[in-house]
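Hey, I'm writing a tutorial for new members on how sequence and structure tokens pair up, and I'd like a real worked example in the thread rather than a made-up one. If someone can provide the structure for the chain below, I'll link this post from the tutorial.
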Amino acid sequence: MQNAILKWKNSSPRAPLVASALRAAPQQPRAVERAVERSLQRQRAAYAAEAEKLVQAALALIRERGELEPPVAAIVKRARLSNQAFYRHFRGKHELLVAVLDHGIALLEDYLRARMAAAPSASERVRAWLRGMLEQALNSRGAEATRPFALARSQLARHYPEEVAASEQRLAALVREAIAEAKRSGELPGADPDADAEALYHLAMGWLETRLLEDDPAERAQAKRLEAFALAGLRTSGAERSSR
């Protein structure tokens, strides 16, 4: 009788269904796998903190010295870390400086975004972006912080072109979005967001680099003339394109 019951259970149509359900059930991570993942998360957090300390130390030295390339020994000393920690994250000083440049770009991006958010219209957001860029040479503290990066940008781009370009595209993207919105709203109906944003970026950055090379501080009247020239050109070129 018992053998007959077992035989019936094994031949029951429910058996394949149970086996199929078990196969379909998601595999839960084992306890050892969860422990390894927790350990890796802690290690990643510790390494991220180390890298951030090195970036902040380099940034502080750059601001104090006014030069882009402080010695690695000075950086690790300022960060209270070792040479081993430095080379765990960066293959060399230039790679760290790209991270420092990216950090500076992020700060400038936040600053520009805040200025643009207060503008009442899309075309005024374009103006706010341009004024914010030029302000980096007009404000003494801003000029002091921006000078090393502006002057060494081309040097870093030779070593790490993709990384530097990606950082700079974040700034151009802000004004590109504003121009595109002004085009949609009819404020700049003939605008070409990609071409115009690229032109404004290079115009602003070229002016910044020139002014920051000079011993005397930039004059606000110079910035106003550049602003008027750039915005008039943007409106004129847009009108010409829309009339074709």
